[in-house]
Amino acid sequence: GNSVTQMEGPVTLSEEAFLTINCTYTATGYPSLFWYVQYPGEGLQLLLKATKADDKGSNKGFEATYRKETTSFHLEKGSVQVSDSAVYFCALSERTGGFKTIFGAGTRLFVKA
Amino acid sequence: SQTIHQWPATLVQPVGSPLSLECTVEGTSNPNLYWYRQAAGRGLQLLFYSVGIGQISSEVPQNLSASRPQDRQFILSSKKLLLSDSGFYLCAWRQQAYNEQFFGPGTRLTVL
Asked: Which of B3, B1, B22 lies closest to B89, judged by CA?
């Protein structure tokens, strides 16, 4: 079945450091890919998405490129801020049945001032 | 614009008591609806999803059930809570023309 694997956390960075959170997926067909962010005590928010190969999703300085050849969708940001501290989930959406979304386990990011 | 509500925000219940969590969506029609559970420090586990009124698909066998009595209302229930039912319950919706899901604020359930 479809699955998403993302790097284990926590990831601890200093403010203004470069961020990469790795995500790889296994899927049949051509899923859509997403990054969601969860701040403490809140629900998940959609951060960015890509619907086909070579698409680049971007939002709030974060970006990720849909790489079909490596089945990856790594999240990057050039300069993190303390306010970026949160849990980040990589996900894929199946295009059949109930259009279920398969989530990775999440990666917790701590950014120090 | 669309909004999704969940209540209550927090709930503390004794073992063996019943449960009813409610989720409603505004500003859209015929959405797909989803219930997830997130254990402390863990990822999301899909519990149920619904593609229409009265249509419920269960992903994990357990003592929870779901119902969709109206187009934009999704209810998660249990007749007798277990300690292992503690967690953060998230409701989500998806508009049928799009792939992304949108999440509610969640309900934190503690079973004592």
From this structure: B22
